[in-house]
Amino acid sequence: MNSTHFIHFKSTTPTSFNHSNHKSNLYPSNYFISFGHPSNLFPKLPSLSFKSCDFSVSTRASIPRPVSEVYLEKPDEKIGDKADDKIDDTAQLKLLRLKLKEIGIDCGSCRPGQTYGLHCPMCNGGSTGEKKLALFISDDGNAATWNCFRAKCGWKGKTQGSAGVKSTYNSMNKLTKVKKIKEITERELKLEPLCHDLFEYFAERMISKETLLRNSVMQRRYENKIAIAFTYRRKGELINCKYRDLAKHFWQESDTEKILYGLDDIDGARDVIIVEGEMDKLAMEEAGFRNCVSVPDGAPKKVSSKDLPSQEEDIKYQYLWNCKEYLEKASRIILATDGDGPGQALAEELARRLGRERCWRVTWPRKNDNEHFKDANEVLMFMGPAVLRGVIESAELYPIKGLFSFKNYLSEIDAYYHQTLGTEIGVSTGWRAMDDLYNVVPGELTVVTGVPNSGKSEWIDALLCNLNQSNGWKFALCSMENKVREHARKLLEKRMKKPFFNVRYGQSVERMSEEELEVGKKWLSDTFHLIRCENDCLPSINWVLTLAKAAVLRHGVNGLVIDPYNELDHQRPPNQTETEYVSQMLTSIKRFAQHHSCHVWFVAHPKQLQQWTGKPPNLYDISGSAHFINKCDNGIVIHRNRDPEAGALDLVQICVRKVRNKVSGTIGDAFLQYNRVTGEYMDIN
Ligand SMILES: Nc1ncnc2c1ncn2[C@@H]1O[C@H](COP(=O)(O)OP(=O)(O)OP(=O)(O)O)[C@@H](O)[C@H]1O
Predict the structure, then answer these.
(1) Ligand 1 centre and the CA of 453: distance in Å?
(2) Residue 615 belongs to a domain with what CATH number?
(3) Which positions fall inside the SF4 helicase domain (predicted)?
């Protein structure tokens, strides 16, 4: 260790220091080569000498007995019994290797009768990745014992190849803490009151003598150097001790119970502040908050992607479990961890365990244009106690995924009020007669129905042409009934206001020229994107929505037409009713529409009307389910007069039967005139 990391011991401070045996109990254990086997783990194991490169160790012929804690489902003797049997070693070893692999121990080509140093699957050898898992395979190759010698882990166990894989595996999963908790005293640790230099060191960090004394911050000498000793106490009793030198190196007493620093200060507290280091805990006290504790082990690099482990397996956060009864009483926990990535990861890990609903978080003030202060002590040093107090007082609720406040949407509400996008109250259909009834809002679902041949597809096509003309909207078309070329014709006629052909329906109107066709083709390609199933099979709604999503992202389409519903594949699981299926399908469509701000027109046919009187059908007549009307934002029925005696045959009734959003329209009927030559719909003067 670099001596400059220590606070140099001045001659003015007491120098009584016992050099004779200091190594055995003074130096932090992790500074030793600490691969000594506790003698009680392998009682018959002769002294081991590990090869530095691979940790492979030969033992004497006598097989060390497995570790004393009982994991085996079969009695130990069986190992010995089997050693005498003439059994197929290779098969047995294979079985054992498989078993170990299941447990997570990769024993590679480990041979019986030897001890190997491997990576511990539980702790991965800590930050240095050391191979500290000692694995011993018995001579007969049927049993293995292991022990991780990292103080923080201590995982150990044993298994037999011939034991039932499942049961043994399960028992192996129950991690057994083998560490004996060491009892420590200030005397044994040779802790001393802080010296003048250290009071000065803390004073520079704005931590007062009173705070240091109240928190029993002490010092410990290492020859002519001193380290700060933060004493971890519970009900005044010393539980752990963490040391810090000037170069911010930390170490702690091994084999002690992990608890929060300052635990007694939160006894019975309703509000608890959790910080990331002892200095921050002391800084909080300077700002007037004693109800603060620090985590003992700093922050993880990132949030774990795994599910929350059980209490026994939650080794890294064991300190929380050990302080459970203190934290349980808190109704508000302010997570004032560092503002950097690991600090935020720590806050998330704490919130996961403590319950997000009672957690709050702080925002550290700005240091300059690019940076924020990192932690409580920095704020105290540079901004003073009042600012630090302000930070805690303005803590905000810790976000919970899926739970929001209108506060999270204020800018969106403002933009809505000011109609920043221009589409907030809906886009005009282009027909005056419909302006009060139906306007097209991005992200909504319009269900269109009408008896066969009423002109549903024609009207939607005409609407798309209008929306393109007025707002430049683009569309994805999933119109399975239409041949591409016919659909192109219908759209081009509306756009060019001329018939495509020079035949009957065109009457005497001149057909569009080749030049106009060229212009029209470019317009078609720029405006519409086709979703089509090239083979015979029917597309599923999910398939359509996936392609529509691609059309939104790739071409920026503003609308999707699905025409008609019954041309999709509607196979559903046998236990699902049609109603359930339709409900689920419409939910997917609406989610797509909202997520991509894309309007969806969905054409659905009414069920067979036995005694159709010629009147427009009802939205409830749509075959399949009442969900069509329940779930859509807008419901429109297209109806046309087919009785010359009842009125003009080109009269089309657009029945707006449902408008969820009053901003965009209301229920009512509009009448348009259909131009059979060009397929246009026009307002009636
Ligand atoms: N008001 C109208 N007057 C005369 N013909 C019309 C009128 N509206 C639509 N048509 C014609 O009816 C035919 C069918 O139109 P369209 O395909 O739009 O109807 P639809 O309601 O979608 O039919 P389907 O339910 O069979 O899909 C087209 O040839 C179209 O020109």
Answers:
(1) 4
(2) 3.40.50.300
(3) 420-685
The span from the CA of 59 to the CA of 106, in Å, is 21
Q: Cβ < 6 Å from ligand 1: which residues? A: 450, 452-458, 481, 564, 605, 640, 649-650, 652, 674, 676
Distance 482 CA to ligand 1 centre (A): 12
The CA distance from 247 to 220, in Å, is 16
ipTM reported for the complex, 2 dp: 0.92
Cβ-contact 304, 366 below 8 angstroms = no
Closest C-alpha residue for ligand 1 atom 30: 455
Q: Does any domain span residue 611? A: yes
pLDDT at 670: 97
Q: Residue 546 corresponds to which amino acid?
A: T
CA 679 / ligand 1 centre spacing (Å):
9
Identify whether residues 436 and 372 lie together within a single domain. Answer: no
Q: pTM for the full model?
A: 0.61
Give the residue ranges of DSSP H helices in 61-185. 77-84, 89-103, 165-173
Choose among 533, 552, 551, 553: nearest CA to 543. Answer: 533
In a domain, 266, yes or no: yes
Closest CA to 625 of 583, 657, 667: 583
Which residue owns the Cα nearest ligand 1 atom 15?
A: 455
Q: Tens digits of per-residue pLDDT, 486-510?
A: 999 999 999 999 999 988 887 888 8
The domain in which residue 288 lies consists of 191-304+315-397
Please tell me the distance between residue 68's alpha carbon and the centre of ligand 1 in angstroms: 86
Structural domain count, the chain: 3
Take atom 7 of ligand 1 and give the residue whose Cα is closest. 455
Atom of ligand 1 nearest to the CA of 674: 1
Inside any domain, residue 565: yes
Distance 464 CA to ligand 1 centre (A): 16
pLDDT reported for residue 378: 98
Residue closest via CA to ligand 1's atom 8 equals 455
